[in-house]
Write a structure and sequence with these properties.
Elements: E1 4-10, E2 25-26, E3 29-30, H1 31-41, E4 47-51, H2 55-58, E5 68-71, H3 79-93, E6 99-104, H4 112-123, E7 129-134, E8 137-145, H5 149-152, H6 162-167, E9 172-176
Parallel strand pairs: 1-4, 1-6, 4-5, 7-9
Antiparallel strand pairs: 2-3, 6-8, 7-8
Keywords: Transferase
Domain MobA-like NTP transferase: 7-169
GO molecular function: transferase activity
Amino acid sequence: MARIGILILAAGASTRLGQPKQLLFYQGKPLIRQMAEVAIASNCQPVGVVLGAHAEAIKPHLSNLDIHIFYNENWSRGMASSIQCGLREMLRVSVELDAIVLMVCDQPFVSPDLIHKLIAGYRDLNYPIVASEYAGILGVPALFHKTFFPELLTLQGDVGAKSIIRQHHSHSLSIPFNQGIIDLDTPQDLQFLS
């Protein structure tokens, strides 16, 4: 069986929202814990969470979970630094990692079922990149085979994995995830949590 890990990117400062989005309550718990529990329920191992801004406030909400917490000292440089930090640490935790699923902490409607569909596209249909499709774009959650790890490790600035998906569009499978368009960036977005 291929060893597939999950990396949750949760290091941002949530400046547009005005409060740490990781700690917004959803289904009776902080969003970051909800996302970690979804990752665990997918049965992928290992599960890693990258923290940065507000790490001390967030970390207690991840206690007693079978996950690895990584701290990105360079979180203010953007998403790419969190992908690099998290992927390097995941490869230390599990040198035999065959693929990784990248998630962000502010897509509240990600489910274990969606993650299973990404994995099925990889295992059953042999696609090296399997991405979620919403609003006409391919994005996260997305699975990347280890052949793309070097590219993920060279991303710069506030560039996420979407750029790699775009570059390798012909090798990418899309999984419909209409609710993926809902992420929590501004106070107006909070209506989707109610």
